[in-house]
Amino acid sequence: MNLEHLNALKQLLSTPRKIAIIPHKNPDGDAIGSTLALWHYAINKGHNASIVSPNDAPKFLKWMPGADKILNFEKQNTQAKSCIGAADVIFTLDFNHLGRVGQMSELLEESSATFVMVDHHQEPSDYAKIMYSDVTMSSTCEMVYHLIGLLGDVNQITKEMANCIYTGIMTDTGSFKFAATTSNTHRVVADLMDRGAEGTEIHHRIYDTNSPSRLHLLGCALKNMVILEEYHTAYITLSQEELDKYNYQKGDTEGFVNYGLTLDGINFAVIFIENKEEGILKISFRSVGDFSVNDFARKHFNGGGHTNAAGGKSEDSIEDTIKYFTSLLPQYQNQLQS
């Protein structure tokens, strides 16, 4: 974070503010962890702060300290709108384009509040007056830890905040295995544990509370996996019918795409998930090495993200989308071999 923006933020927060903290739609562990950690910090500093999420978070994140205080824009619409309308400061965490908040975007665009962006994705837009954008960071949660430090308050990180930050770092790094996990990430995690973060318990709550239907859905996904050895690529499809058959709940497909990368010789993994309600296919891309799924998603599937992890979407059928996707692979064959 550059000095000008840091000083502006310090000045902004020097007096009590009405703060709205916003994660992206379909929030994951990093989005919920970072917003909750910042919410705890703001409340402890005497601000009137609230979190407004575009929609619900997965069940496996609802144990997090303060999660029951998050306003769901879909279910608590009047209260959520009032909170955003009254805010004089709006923090947006773990996204960098207002389009990532779905139906909330128009409300945010109309707000006269001062926007503060904290995010680690590529190619940020310019809606925020104060920006802390760093694509080298493992997670937005790691950035929140550093932000609190830059504000001179690292010693005010409580056990509740430490648990929230640890959760986001752990989930966004694939339990510390992704390339963005640096030695500094581990130093941050060590400090969080010294401040009370319960690593083993957090891992259990996130990864060891599956329902039988989720494991059956995973079995279906793995059965659907197609391996294209020539292109070092594996992809999975899940239709709406299959989701319904296995009683899909929000968050159930989290991490499924990564199974493709556990195969020897696979450098590119994709999952296509049908969403009849929204009329789209939701797509997740993962890679290892230098192949940029961010560039691939932006160019071909109206998406983006990180070099090795990105998302996109298609309005075509599964069959037509797969046909288009596979037609693209020959032009990337050389990149996918490395």
TrEMBL record:
Domain of life, per lineage: Bacteria
InterPro entries from the UniProt entry: DDH_dom, DHH_sf, DHHA1_dom, Oligoribo/pAp-PDE_c-di-AMP_PDE
Entry-linked Pfam families: DHH, DHHA1
Domain DDH: residue ranges: 18-169
Signal sequence interval, chain numbering: none
Annotated DHHA1 domain residues: 245-325
Family annotation (PANTHER family): BIFUNCTIONAL OLIGORIBONUCLEASE AND PAP PHOSPHATASE NRNA (PTHR47618)
Protein name, as recorded: Phosphoesterase RecJ domain-containing protein
Organism: Maribacter sedimenticola
